[in-house]
Design goal:
The complex is a heterodimer of chains A (about 160) and B (about 675).
Chain A lengths: L2 H28 L5 E5 L1 H5 L9 E7 L5 E2 L5 E7 L4 E7 L11 E8 L5 E7 L9 H12 L19
Parallel strand pairs in A: 1-2, 5-7
Antiparallel strand pairs in A: 2-4, 2-6, 3-4, 4-5, 6-7
Chain B lengths: L1 H29 L2 H5 L1 H24 L6 H6 L6 H6 L5 H22 L5 H25 L23 H30 L4 H32 L10 H26 L3 H24 L13 H28 L10 H32 L6 E3 L1 H21 L10 H26 L4 H28 L7 H26 L1 E7 L4 E4 L2 E12 L3 E12 L2 E6 L2 E5 L5 E4 L1 E4 L3 E10 L7 E9 L2 H18 L19 H7 L1 H7 L6
Antiparallel strand pairs in B: 2-11, 3-4, 4-5, 5-6, 5-7, 7-8, 9-10, 10-11
Classes of the chains: A alpha+beta (about 160), B alpha+beta (about 675).
Chain lengths: ~160, ~675
């Protein structure tokens, strides 16, 4: 090999190695817990469609009159619904500004053995008229699902008037 | 009437943009000086009409003309005047108008400051910018008209999103957009070079200041956005890897790579094709960023509108811009050539590594940001997912660590070839000192973790290598005057990175975040400070009502700060808003925000009490980077090349320096950034 070829070979092999390394980095990062969060609906969760050990997201509406606070003032219990099934959620911390009964919310966390969802994050989106895609998806799927109503049925809050 | 005038101005501007996009480029191709000469006047005309449209919309906002749909959606008669003005870019339509307005300003600036450039070059650059403007004006007129009427007009507007009612938000979007739009100049220069088939060191020297200006704006824009999120979102985070933050970060990464690649193209005439590709990439990512932010394609805190109607236009526009420029690249790049040769260990190879790492970082962020969209498209919308912070942190850190290590070596290494042994010898003390400091300091600060030590090492390494290089050059060239402003600019920016790393490392390593229940009179301790909650009182603002709490922070029984966090509810939208109260210091921030009142208690609230050491260093680092960019811009060589001929290659600088000491400072190109 001429020196030039040698150098080219070196550069190419370094480039290939670097590309491989980055690809490996990406794949391993995506596989981390919380790397990719699939979102489910409360019906999915009790239909055994959601993962057992890893964290995931659930979107739905906060059931009216379901928000309860423990004595410490920071542990909050509420129910999330897709209008078909209700899912009890427990969260310790301060809820976002736009968290409201009857409105959409997205929770991230794990499902514990007792059937309660332990959220480490609660998201409520930043516009009164905006509904997170996760919530929308949950409500839409519920509409098309067979009407097996187990939990108390909650009517969604009427859509805020649009201009 | 005024809104119709604005609408009409946009139509005229579109016509002018079409002329600006076609005639000068055609003229350049045929060597027709008259057609090329049209570039500047037509661009000026376009600027005037876009400015009229911009003023018309501003007027509608300031006079609260709610018969304009966009004003009704984003303003309110009780909104203070300065926010009424800033509300112009509070939504999608106005943002696009602002973008276009800034584009015409940049075009005028290019026309103004490139009088010494060959006429074909200027004609092509302004022409390409005209074509970009055509795209934006078409988009506004057909899919996103800010002047659309709403009849009958509502009594009052829906109000600007409370999160945006903040001084930081008044300047953040224009800054960011100045950066995005600024990369259109680098893009236009690259496309012009491809069209002309002529790309050399002189071309790189023309493009560099424009790219740097855009980069400075983008850096400041991102820093402002991050700072805004920190104090306005109410929970003290400064970066969330939110799709929209990523949207602004990707062009920044590509732009940073471009700045460094341009340096090599200017000094060594190497990396030519790569530089052009990066210029195309940086601008494409800017376009993508602009559209991702407000189109609602991605789940994000910034996506206020969810209007899929615009999706198609945006997609087509992106495909046309990126596709056409890449096609041009594939067709013409072979003519440009790869450029000068260099050895495996040289400043070129360090900069190459920097470019590879920055591009890889941009690619991984891109993947993480758009992955949910890809999956959704592939599964037909069945599978909703999001990519979270753990992904971004896991990919970003391993790429940035080698990058920062190499960043210390790059400026010390010589162009073309350097002995590795020699290089290591020169930095051995820097390495030892930073290693020891990084290993010991965390113990003194109270907690040792590998990540803290690593972060501190990178910061000290960067600082000490900057000092090593400064010292060496001063000894060699006699004092401070021996180096050009662009050299000092580079080192200042690198120093800024070190400051930034210190901020990130220490705040991540040593912050205290406490969410606590506090009744009036109760205290809590965070980071060595005692916080006493004194309860809340009612307050009333111009367009909101709320409560204001009082928290007294003290240390060693001495009052350090009085904090007044607020919880507001905006009248028009009914949106609640948390206003954090922050006591800023050089070494720490005390951050308090109100959560929610606790029912059935005597005035107790859930309160966030944070102690954030060195958090402001994060933004100070960004400001230093931007200042470095500004310093580099002040370099005389960007202004004295008027008399140089196009063919002036990168060689013979050292000869020039020896023969002409008077020009030596400005011309020391082969030695500086």
């Amino acid at each position: 090999m001429t020196p030039r070829q040698k150098k080219m070979t070196l550069f190419i092999s370094v480039a290939v190695a670097a590309a491989g390394l980055v690809a490996w980095l990406v794949v391993s990062a995506l596989n981390k817990d919380g790397g990719i969060n699939f979102s489910y609906t409360p019906s999915d969760v009790y239909g055994n469609k959601a993962p057992q050990r890893t964290s995931f997201r659930v979107g739905g509406l906060v059931v009216a009159n379901s928000v309860k606070r423990d004595k410490d003032g920071l542990t909050v219990r509420f129910e999330l619904t897709d209008t078909v099934r209700n899912m009890p959620v427990v969260f310790t911390g301060i809820l976002p500004d736009l968290f409201k009964e009857g409105k959409g919310a997205v929770v991230q966390g794990k499902l514990e053995a007792d059937g309660t969802f332990h959220a480490n994050e609660v998201l409520a989106k930043h516009d009164e008229n905006y509904q997170a895609p996760e919530v929308k998806q949950a409500l839409e799927q519920a509409k098309t699902a067979p009407a097996v109503k187990v939990g108390p049925v909650v009517t969604a809050a009427p859509a805020p008037a649009k201009l | 009437m005024i809104p119709e005038l604005g609408h009409f101005s946009l139509i005229v501007a579109l016509m002018l943009a079409l002329l600006q996009g076609v005639l000068p480029i055609w003229g350049a191709a045929r060597g027709n000086a008259v057609l090329m000469g049209l570039a500047r006047p037509v661009a000026a005309g376009q600027f005037v009409f876009v400015a009229i449209a911009f003023c018309a919309l501003a007027y509608a906002f300031l006079t609260s003309d709610f018969s304009v749909l966009y004003v009704a959606q984003n303003s309110n008669s009780h909104l203070p005047a300065h926010y009424r003005f800033a509300a112009l870019w509070g939504g999608h339509e106005g943002s696009i108008l602002l973008w276009t307005f800034l584009l015409t300003i940049w075009t005028i600036a290019v026309g103004q400051f490139s009088k010494h450039l060959p006429q074909e070059m200027v004609a092509r650059v302004i022409g390409v910018m005209g074509l970009i403007s055509v795209g934006f004006l078409l988009f506004m007129l057909f899919a996103s008209n800010p002047f659309e009427r709403l009849l009958p007009a509502p009594g009052d507007g829906r109000d600007l999103n409370p999160l945006l009612q903040d001084p930081g938000m008044v300047i953040h979007p224009p800054m960011l957009y100045m950066g995005y739009v600024g990369f259109s100049v680098a893009f236009a220069f690259a496309v012009s070079a491809l069209l002309g088939g002529h790309l050399d060191a002189t071309w790189a020297r023309w493009s560099r200041p424009w790219t740097t200006v855009a980069w400075v704006f983008l850096t400041l824009g991102i820093a402002l956005g991050s700072g805004w999120a920190y104090y306005e979102m109410g929970w003290g985070g400064w970066w969330f890897w939110d799709p929209v933050e990523n949207a602004s970060f990707m062009p920044w990464l590509a732009g940073t790579a471009l700045i460094h690649s341009l340096a090599v193209t200017e000094k060594r005439a190497a990396f030519k094709s790569w530089t052009v590709l990066l210029a195309i990439g940086a601008f494409s990512l800017s376009l993508l960023g602009t559209f991702l932010v407000r189109s609602g394609v991605l789940t994000s805190v910034h996506a206020f509108t969810t209007d899929p109607r615009r999706g198609l236009f945006i997609l087509v526009f992106l495909v046309v811009v990126i596709g056409a420029s890449l096609f041009l690249y594939a067709w013409r790049a072979p003519r440009i050539g790869l450029g000068g040769k260099f050895e495996v260990v040289s400043r070129e190879s360090f900069l190459l590594a920097n470019n590879v790492l920055l591009s890889a970082a941009a690619a991984t962020v891109f993947l993480g940001t758009l992955y949910p969209l890809f999956v959704q498209a592939l599964t037909g919308g069945q599978s909703k997912l999001s990519v979270g912070e753990p992904y971004f942190e896991a990919v970003f850190l391993p790429l940035m660590v080698p990058m920062v290590v190499l960043m210390g070596l790059g400026p010390i290494a010589r162009w073309k070839q350097v002995s590795l042994l020699d290089l290591l010898k020169r930095v051995r003390w820097a390495a030892v000192v930073s290693f020891v400091l990084a290993a010991v300091l965390p113990f003194l600060l109270g907690k040792w973790t590998p990540l803290i030590a690593l972060g501190l090492f990178l910061a000290f390494w960067t600082m000490s290598t900057v000092l090593v290089d400064l010292r060496k050059r001063m000894l060699r060239d006699g004092g401070v005057k021996g180096q050009s402003p662009s050299y000092y600019g580079m080192q200042l920016a690198h120093f800024g990175i070190a400051v930034f790393i210190i901020g990130v490392t220490l705040v991540k390593g040593y912050e205290t975040e406490r969410d606590v229940r506090m009744a009036p009179g109760e205290t809590t301790v965070a980071g060595g400070y005692t916080f006493r909650f004194d309860g809340v009182r009612d307050i009333e603002g111009p367009n909101y009502r709320g409560v204001q709490g009082r928290v007294i922070a003290s240390k060693d029984d001495k009052t350090v700060a009085q904090l007044y966090p607020e919880k507001r509810v905006y009248n028009a939208s009914g949106m609640p808003m948390t206003e954090a109260s922050i006591d800023t210091g050089l070494f720490r921030d005390l951050y308090v925000s109100l959560g929610e009142p606790i029912p059935d208690s005597n005035g107790a609230w859930a309160v966030r009490v944070y102690h954030k050491p060195f958090v402001d260093w994060i933004w100070a680092g960004c400001v230093l980077m931007a200042l470095g960019g500004i310093l580099a811009l002040s370099d005389r060589r960007y202004r004295i090349h008027a008399k140089r001929k196009l063919a002036g290659g990168p060689a013979s600088d050292d000869v020039v320096r020896k023969k002409q000491p008077a020009r030596a400072v400005a011309d020391r190109r082969s030695k500086t950034a």
